[in-house]
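User: Before I run my own analysis I want an independent prediction to cross-check against. Here's the chain; please return only the structure tokens and, at the end, one sentence I can use as a sanity check.
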Amino acid sequence: MAVSTKQYISGLALASLGMGSLPVSADYALNMTTGVTPTSQQVYDLHMIIFWICVAIGVVVFGAMIFSIFKHRKSKGAVAAQFHESTTAEIAWTIVPIVILVSMAVPATKTLLAMEDTSDADMSIKVTGIQWKWKYDYLDEGISFISSLDPKHNEARQLKSGVDPASFDHYLREVDNPLVVPVGKKIRFLLTANDVIHSWWVADLGWKKDAIPGFVNEAWAKIEKPGVYRGKCAELCGKDHGFMPIVVVAKSEADYAEWVAQQKAAADAAAASADREWTKDELMARGEKVYATNCAACHQANGAGIPGAFPALAGSALATGDAAGHIDIVMHGKPGTAMAAYKNLLNDADLAAVITYERHAWGNNASVVQPAAIKAAR
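Assistant: Structure tokens:
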């Protein structure tokens, strides 16, 4: 991002979002960022060209006005000219704006066409917006994962959490699983959503695109230098719209290849672990982490929910009743409510773990759910 002055703001508006009176970082920059992609550089150059054209127009127009005000004022005996038509003036104020608009339209059109050209991509990533997280599918690598607000930041932003937000770098702009990409490769992004309209925006890439349910938007980026680039959802999408950040980590080709190998190994290990019998302690430990990432924002960390909005799980008939009903609602969601379907978002082990956690946390005491039960329910 461009160099900026960081200020800390607190107020009642934050309390209305369940954050209490907490400091939040706000950046104020004098100019837009130049970014780290060819697209962002073209956009910045176009912005500066048009800016200086506007400056030149302003200097000419206001300069003429100021000159006329002082040179032709009444106190100096100036007398207004009496004429109604001037062919020369009419031609001038028609031709000059046309030339200016064309000089602006030509580079703008080239930039817009370049931004839409997703052909000859080296790899493709599907981005799915979900209340209130992002899902990334690497279509060429077979890698898929969910990216959510970092659990520690999520805890800190809860009302009366007792955690000081000032102790975090990039407060509310950190995630548990960043999007990792290689530098120097043209990446095609396919953007959609599962529920409502979201908008995927990383300023350093030079564009943002809406993620719309039932529709796929396309965009591309070619990041030219390694680094960490942050963004956020730029479309008001519900209660936790302000808490679904984006983090893109650009790595060298060698480091990216190593990361891909690690992800595939982790996926294989997760698939293998789903076929064995888990102990209750293992399920509870893993389930607590899955719950904190996916469920705590609505049902709260203590399982008490939010009266009138999100039901409590502590002592609820769902969490203490028949396991099959509990599995069904977690996997398939509940139409007409904010309860998302996690069937395609979490693997068998994570689903079994979080359901077991909900059935045994906060004083609940129900049956243990094994990954095999989730596999059967699929």
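Sanity check: The longest helix spans residues 38-71.
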